[in-house]
Amino acid sequence: MKKINIGIVGVGRMGSIHLENLVTKFTNARVLAISDTSPNVEALAEKYQVAKVYSQFESMIKDSEIDAVVICSPTDLHATHIIKAAKAGKHIFCEKPMDLSLETVKEVLEIVKIAGVKLFIAFNRRYDPNFQRVEKMVKGGKIGDPQIIKITSRDPGPPPLPYIKVSGGLFLDMAIHDFDMARFISGKEVVEVFSKGTVFIDKGIGDAGDIDTAATILTMEDNSMVIIDNSRKASYGYDQRIEVFGSKGMCGSENMLHDNHFHWDENGIHGALPMDFFMDRYLKSYYNEMDSFLNCLLNNTEPKPSGMDGLMSIAIGLAAKTSLQEGRTVKLSKLL
Amino acid sequence: MKKINIGIVGVGRMGSIHLENLVTKFTNARVLAISDTSPNVEALAEKYQVAKVYSQFESMIKDSEIDAVVICSPTDLHATHIIKAAKAGKHIFCEKPMDLSLETVKEVLEIVKIAGVKLFIAFNRRYDPNFQRVEKMVKGGKIGDPQIIKITSRDPGPPPLPYIKVSGGLFLDMAIHDFDMARFISGKEVVEVFSKGTVFIDKGIGDAGDIDTAATILTMEDNSMVIIDNSRKASYGYDQRIEVFGSKGMCGSENMLHDNHFHWDENGIHGALPMDFFMDRYLKSYYNEMDSFLNCLLNNTEPKPSGMDGLMSIAIGLAAKTSLQEGRTVKLSKLL
Amino acid sequence: MKKINIGIVGVGRMGSIHLENLVTKFTNARVLAISDTSPNVEALAEKYQVAKVYSQFESMIKDSEIDAVVICSPTDLHATHIIKAAKAGKHIFCEKPMDLSLETVKEVLEIVKIAGVKLFIAFNRRYDPNFQRVEKMVKGGKIGDPQIIKITSRDPGPPPLPYIKVSGGLFLDMAIHDFDMARFISGKEVVEVFSKGTVFIDKGIGDAGDIDTAATILTMEDNSMVIIDNSRKASYGYDQRIEVFGSKGMCGSENMLHDNHFHWDENGIHGALPMDFFMDRYLKSYYNEMDSFLNCLLNNTEPKPSGMDGLMSIAIGLAAKTSLQEGRTVKLSKLL
Amino acid sequence: MKKINIGIVGVGRMGSIHLENLVTKFTNARVLAISDTSPNVEALAEKYQVAKVYSQFESMIKDSEIDAVVICSPTDLHATHIIKAAKAGKHIFCEKPMDLSLETVKEVLEIVKIAGVKLFIAFNRRYDPNFQRVEKMVKGGKIGDPQIIKITSRDPGPPPLPYIKVSGGLFLDMAIHDFDMARFISGKEVVEVFSKGTVFIDKGIGDAGDIDTAATILTMEDNSMVIIDNSRKASYGYDQRIEVFGSKGMCGSENMLHDNHFHWDENGIHGALPMDFFMDRYLKSYYNEMDSFLNCLLNNTEPKPSGMDGLMSIAIGLAAKTSLQEGRTVKLSKLL
Q1: CA of D150: which chain C residue's CA is closest?
Q2: Best residue of C186, C236, C245, C329 to probe chain D, by most D CBs closer than 10 Å
Q3: pLDDT tens digits along B186-241
Q4: Dihedral angle at the C-alpha atoms of C273, C274, C277, C283, nearest 10 degrees?
C-alpha cells in the first residue's frame, strides 16, 4: 500500500498534535518533512524520526516526494500557504479559519479549484464521536424536521490577549466552530444572523475590541432557528453541548466528564466536572479528521469540511460581528 | 384563627384547581362563594360544600363576608373583574395576563393602588420548587453574577385555535411565563427584546396570525442575556428547563419525569418521559402560590408576583411581538 | 354509588395518613369511626368530621354500619384485631407485619378464611409508581428471565430503641418490605436465605439484640438470586433502589430526589439529595394501596398483597434471623 | 535517561496490547525482545521494530540486555515463567492469575523474594481512572468508614468453552478482579466468603463444571460487607460499577458509555450503551499499570499490586468455589 507523504508547516500546539498522531497512529501516511522557524523543530524531528526539516515553507513544497501539506501556521499565513501549496500541486489540510477576509478566501478557493488539489478545512468538531452521533440521528430522521437547535459553547478560559487582537475575535476564532456545527448538524444554510454580546470576564478583552460573552440566533433556509451561546470562561470546564429539537423529538449530546464517579453526602449528590483541556475533550476528533483527510486522498473523494464550508463559517462570523456592532439582523446573502 | 373568606369567579380548568386546593388543603381560608355562568356550577358547589353560588360577579363582590376574590374568568374579563373587586375593597388573586393592553393594565394598577387592596398575579411557576431552588441559588451567589440565562419552554401540545385567536398569541399566553421567569430568577429588569418565530406545527396557527415556535434574546439591565426558546408542541412531553450561567458556575433545573425507572437493552439505555400534563408538572406550584397569597393577607405583606410584575411581562410580550413583526430589536423603555 | 364505611383502629403515624387520605381523597369510602385510646382522638375526629369515636376496638366492630376496618394498632395487637374483625364479618386492611410468630399468622389466616372476609396486608411499596413500573417491565418480558435482582434499602435514620426492642428487628420491621418486594417483582417464591449483618450505627441497637446493617442473598425457585442490602442510616436520605438483571437486559428504578436542580462549580457537578421522609417518598403508594383495597371490596376481587403474602415475608424474615445467628443458609421449606 | 529493556513472552491478545503501548507510548522503556511460538511473531516484531525474537522463553531470559519481562503466556505457564525469570534476575510484570494452586503461588513468591526481583501482578482495574477516583475518595475519608461495598461485574459475553475448562472458572478468571477490587478499595482483608451461583446463559458452561452467574458476600476484617454480582453475559455491554456506602455517605462509579448522546421521543428518553469491548473500557488502565510498573523499576519502589495481592485474590476465589460447592461460608484463614 502506498503511504502518503506529508509535510507539516507550523509545529506549535496544533501542529504537534497532528505530527504525533500521524507518526504513532497512521500506517497509511508518513511525515516526511516539517517546516517551522522555531528553534526546537530539530528536536521534534528527531523525536518523531522525521527525515527532513525545512526552515522555509517554500522549500518544503518544492520537495517532489511530498503529496500533501498540513498547515498549522498562524492564521495570517494560512491563505498564502494554501495558495503556494496548491500551485505546487500539493493536497492541503488547513487549520481554520482560512483568513479573516472573505475576498481573500474566495481567491484562495478559486486558485485551489484551478490547481485541482484537495482542500480540507480542519473543523475537527465534525469528527467528535458525540457530535457525529447527533448528526447521524438528525439525518436519519430520528427527530423529524429540526426546528430549534441549541449549541452551548463555552471555553474553560480565554486565550491570551495578543491572540485575541489578531484572531478576528470571539465570532471568528471561537464561535466559528459553532457556526460550522450549525450547518453540519442541520445540513442547511444560514440565511440571517443576529448576535448580542458583551464583556463580562476580562476588561482587557473589551479594550482589545472584542467581547467574551455572546448570544446568537441563526435563521436557517428552512426557517429553523439555531441558538448559540458563547463564553470565553466557564469556571467548571469545557462546556460543549448540542440539542436538536424537531417535530418528532429531541436529540443531542452532553459534556464529556473527567470520569464517572459519584459522591453522595449530607450536602447533595456530586460528580465529576467536564474535561477542561481541548486535547482531552477533542482527542478522538483530531485523529478522526486526519483519518478522513487521508482517506480522501487515497480514495479520491471530496474533502469534508471543504473549502466552501470554511468560507461559509467565516461569512457567518463576519455577519455576527456586523449584527453586534449595528444592533440589527444581517442577511448572509449581503456578504456572499 | 381567622379564616379568610374567598369568592372564586370562573370555575373552569384553573378555577377548579384553586377551588379544590382551597377546600381540601388550606385551613386558613374558606371558599364562601363561587360565581360562574356555567350550568355545572351548582354541582361543584355541592361537591366542595361551597355555601353560596352567584350567577353575577357583581353580586358576589357585594357580599360583605367575602375578603378576597380569586379571578379565573376568561382573559378579556380580568381587567373588569379586578377593577370591580378593588372598588369593592376585596383583595385579588388574578390569573395571568391581566390584559393584552398596556394602557388598560396601567389603569387597573392605578385603581388597585387607590383602593388599597392587594393584587397577586398568578405566575405559578415562581412557586415551582425546582425554579424556587434555582432562584435561591442565584440570589445566594452560588454562581456569581449571572451572564447567560437559558429558558427552554415547550408545551406538550398547542391549545385550541379559538383560544389562540384571543389569547394574544404565543408571546402573551405562553412565553409570558418565561418573561416573568427571566425577571424572577435574575432579579433584573429587561432592557431590550429580540424575537424570531415561525409556524412549524400547525398551519392553522399561522392563519390565526400567530406563530408556534420562537426564539428570543432578552438583554437585561446588567447586560446579561436571557435566551428563551418556545414550542407549542414537544412530542415527548412538557419541556420546562432553566439554566443560569454565571461568573462562578452554572445552576438550573431539569424536567420532572413521570417516574425514575431505567431500562437497558441491546438498543440503549431508556428512561421515563417528562410529565405531559400541566396539573401534574405544576401541581405543587398551584398550592404554593395560593399559600403565599393567603399569607400576604394574613401578615399584611406585599404580594409576589405583584401587579407590576404582571405589567412588565405583558410589556415584554408586546415588545417581542413587535420585534418579530419588524425584524429588529425593541427597547422596552419605548413601551412603558 | 354505595360508600364503604370504614373504621380505623390506631390513629398514630400510619393511621393518621390513612385517615387523611380516606377523608380528603376518596369518594367511594367514608371514615365512620375511629378507635384509639389516645387523648387526641376526639380532636382528630372533629378535624376530619368522623362521626363516631370508640375507645374500645371491640365496640367498633360491633357497629353494624361498618364494612371494613383499617388496622394501624401496634404490631403486637395486629393478630388479635384481625381475628376479632374477621369474626365480626368486617373486611380488613392491616399494616405489616401481621405478627412475629408464624404459628399465630397461620391461625389468623385460617380464621380469616373461615370468616370469608378480605384481608389486605399493607405492603405499600408494591403501590409505589416506580416499583410498579419495574414490575410491569419484568412481567412484560422486557428484560427476559430475571437472573439477579438487587434491592438497596436504607433508611435515613434508625427508629427509636424501644421500637426496635419489640419490632422483631431489622429483618422483620424493615427488610420485610424488601422480602415482599423480591416476591412482588419476580413473581417467584424464595427457596433459601443467607444473611450477614452487624452493628455499625448505634451500639444501643446491638445491645437491644438487633443489627443495623445487613446483606442478604435470597435464592428463588428458579435459581435467580435476590441481593438485598440494608442500613438503618444513610446520611444522604432515603435510599430505595431496585435493579433487575435478566437475559435480555436490565431495568429498575432510581431514588426520588427532593428536586431536579443542578449546580456546577469549580468543585464538581452537584444535585439534590433523595427524599428523607417516608411520607414524601411513599406519598402516592399510601393513596394507591387504599384505592386498591377499596376496589377489592367494591368489585369483590382478591386483595393484593394477601394474607399469604404477609405470611411469606415473615417467614423469610425469620429465616434471615436464623441464618444470621447460625452462620448458614436456611431453607424456607423448613419453616413453613 | 536509561531506558528499561523489556522482553515480552506471549503476544496474544494481552501481550499485543502491552507491546503496542510500550512501543508507541513509553519513552522510558524499549521492547527489546518478544518470545512466542506463534507463526505471526515475526510480523509483529517487524511492525513494532522489535530487535529480537526468541522462540524459547528460556533463551530470552538469558539475554543480559533484558531488564524485565512481561508475562502474557497462558495461565498454566505463569508460575514456571515467573520462577525462571526471577532466577535469571529479571523483574516481572505478570498477567493474573499467577496459578490456580495456592501451594504453587506460595512457592513462586518465596523464589521471587529470594531472587530480590520485583513482581507486579496485572490487576489492571486498579489503574482504571474511575476506580482510582473511588479509592481516593474512600481513603480520603469522604464517606467515613465503609460499611457496604457493592461491585457489579458483568461481561458482555462468555469466553470460549475451551478457555473456561482451564481457567479455574468464573471465580478465578473473572470474579478474581472483583476480589482484588474489594481489597483495593477498602484497604481491608477478607475474613469470610459466601457464594451462590448457577448456570443461566450456556448449558455448556455447566457441563464444563463452571457457573455463569454468581452472587458473593465477602465479610471483611472490620465487619464491612462486600457484595459482588457476576454474570458472563450482559446483553447491553460491559457492566462494571462500584458503590461504597459508609457512615458519612456513598461514592462509586458508573459505567463508561459509548458516547454522551441523548434522544427523546414519544417512547422515552434514550441514551448510549456501555462500552462492550474490554480494550475500550479499560484502555487507560493498561497504559497506567505499565507506567506504574516502569516507575517501580526506575524509582526502586514496591510494585502494586504485589505478588501477595495476587495470592490473596486466588485464595478468595478458591474459597468462593468451596462455598458454592458446599453451601456454606468459608473462612479465608483456613486456606492461607
Answers
A1: C229
A2: C245
A3: 999 999 999 999 999 999 999 999 999 999 999 999 999 999 999 999 999 999 99
A4: 140
Q: List the grid coordinates of C186.
A: 419476580
Q: Which architecture characterizes domain C4-117 according to CATH?
A: 3-Layer(aba) Sandwich (3.40)
Most B CBs within 10 A among D239, D269, D273, D276, hence the mutation to make, goes to D269
The 10 Å Cβ neighbour count of residue B221 is 12
- Cα distance from C177 to chain A (closest Cα, Å)? 24
Residue from B263, B267, B285 whose CB has the most chain C CBs within 10 Å, to mutate: B263
**pLDDT at residue C1, rounded to an integer:** 59
Check: CB of residue A274 under 8 Å from CB of residue A237.
Answer: yes
The CA–CA distances, whole Å, from D10 to C288, D6, D88 equal 62, 13, 18
| Residues of A with Cβ-Cβ distance to D252 under 8 angstroms | 261-262
Neighboring chain C residues of A272 at a CB cutoff of 8 Å:
268-269
Closest CA to D5 of D32, D28, D36, D24: D32
Do residues C257 and C275 touch, judged by C-beta distance below 8 A? yes
- D248-302: pLDDT as tens digits: 999 999 999 999 999 999 999 999 999 998 889 999 999 999 999 999 999 999 9
Chain B: touching chains (3 or more CB pairs < 8 Å)? A, C, D
Q: Where in chain C is the domain with CATH 3.40.50.720?
A: 4-117
Q: Please answer yes or no on whether C236 and D249 come within 8 Å at the CB atom.
A: yes
Q: Residue holding cell 417535530?
A: A247
Q: Which helix (H) or strand (E) holds C245?
A: strand C239-246
Q: Render pLDDT for B246-301 as a digit per residue (tens, 0 to 9).
A: 999 999 999 999 999 999 999 999 999 999 988 899 999 999 999 999 999 999 99
Out of D148, D198, D248, whose CB is closest to C213? Answer: D148
Q: D192 CB contacts (<8 Å, ≥6 apart)?
A: D218, D219, D329, D330, D331, D332
DSSP B328: B
> Which residue in the set B236, B257, B269 is minimally distant from D271, CB to CB?
B269
Is B260 an 8 Å CB contact of chain D? Answer: no
Q: Identify all chain D residues contacting A134, using CB atoms and an 8 Å cutoff.
A: 261
In chain A, residues under CATH classification 3.30.360.10 are 126-277+313-334
pLDDT (tens digit, 9 = 90+) per residue, C268-319? 999 999 999 888 999 999 999 999 999 999 999 999 999 999 999 999 999 9
Distances D217 to B269, C41, C215 between C-alpha atoms, Å: 28, 48, 8
pLDDT tens by residue, B73-128: 999 999 999 999 999 999 999 999 999 999 999 999 999 999 999 999 999 999 99
Chains that touch A (3 or more CB pairs under 8 A): B, C, D
Architecture of the domain defined by C126-277+313-334: 2-Layer Sandwich (3.30)
Residue D1 pLDDT class (50, 70, 90 cuts): low
Q: Between residues 261 and 320 of chain D, which touch chain B (CB distance below 8 Å)?
A: 263-273
Chain B residues within an 8 Å CB radius of D269: 236, 257, 270-273
What is the tens place of the pLDDT at every residue in C100-137?
999 999 999 999 999 999 999 999 999 999 999 999 99
Structure confidence by residue, pLDDT tens digits, A106-151: 999 999 999 999 999 999 999 999 999 999 999 999 999 999 999 9
The rounded mean pLDDT for chain C is 96
CB contact under 8 Å between D260 and A256, yes or no, is: yes
Coil vs helix vs strand at D328: strand
Chain C closest CA to B129's CA: distance in Å?
A: 7
- Judge whether D72 and D95 are in contact, CB under 8 Å: yes
> Of B130, B93, B97, B66, which Cα lies nearest the Cα of B289?
B93
* pLDDT at residue A1, rounded to an integer: 59
